[in-house]
Amino acid sequence: MNDLRIRLAAESDLPTLVRLRDAAARWMLARGVTRQWQPGELDEDHFRRVIAGDGEVWLAESESESADGGAVVGAWELWWDDEAAWGAQPPMAGYIHRLMIDRTTAAPGTGRRLLTAAEARVAATGRTHARLDCLADNAPLNAYYRDAGYRPVGLVEGKPQPGGPPKSFTLMEKALTS
């Protein structure tokens, strides 16, 4: 699978987004990552609020010859501010959240490709940095983002979570080139 179709999520994609998020949570739990995501934490209303609000939700589908346009292989949220983690900031960054991969349909390297697509979307708006937060005690995920060019720039403790208890996060940032 070399080709992906990236598109904005629509109302009709809400069940798919919940399924994808819950599957990613179950995958993490099966590997001993117990403090990150839990199945059932986010429902359709969460994604509906992001789509209708100040953010974007993107889906990636494998390009195929099938009538349905291919299998959904991943998704992510892109916000234009994140005061809960970063405080008030000038409009220089896009904030990537909930990078999700379908481990049953996605080829190796899909996560990095989706991260690159999110960064390209941020750069296309004229913003110069991509930012994300990563569960502070998830060392493999922190290393994944460092390997993708992100650098830790801070720590936020007790960040409120939709559907769950507050958690501590490493703040990570990447300068984008145009």
Description:
It is globular and about 40 Å long. The protein has 5 helices and 7 strands; from the N terminus they run E-H-H-E-E-H-E-H-E-H-E-E. 30% of the residues lie in helices and 34% in strands. The protein is an alpha+beta fold. It starts with a strand and ends with a strand. The chain has helices spanning 14-30, 44-52, 83-86, 110-124, 139-147, and strands spanning 4-8, 55-62, 72-79, 93-101, 129-135, 151-161, 164-175. The protein has a 7-stranded mixed β-sheet with strand order 1-2-3-4-5-7-6, with helices on both faces.
Please supply descriptive tags for the structure shown above.
5 helices; 7 strands; 178 residues; seven-stranded mixed sheet; alpha+beta
Identify the overall geometry: globular
Using the CA coordinates, give the radius of gyration: 16 Å
Largest sheet: 7 strands, mixed
Terminus-to-terminus distance: 27 Å
Q: Mean of residue pLDDT?
A: 90
Low-confidence stretches: none
Helix content: 25-40%
Number of strands: 7
Number of helices: 5
- Please state the structural category: alpha+beta
Strand residue content: 25-35%
Strand order of the largest sheet: 1-2-3-4-5-7-6
SSE string, helices as H and strands as E = EHHEEHEHEHEE
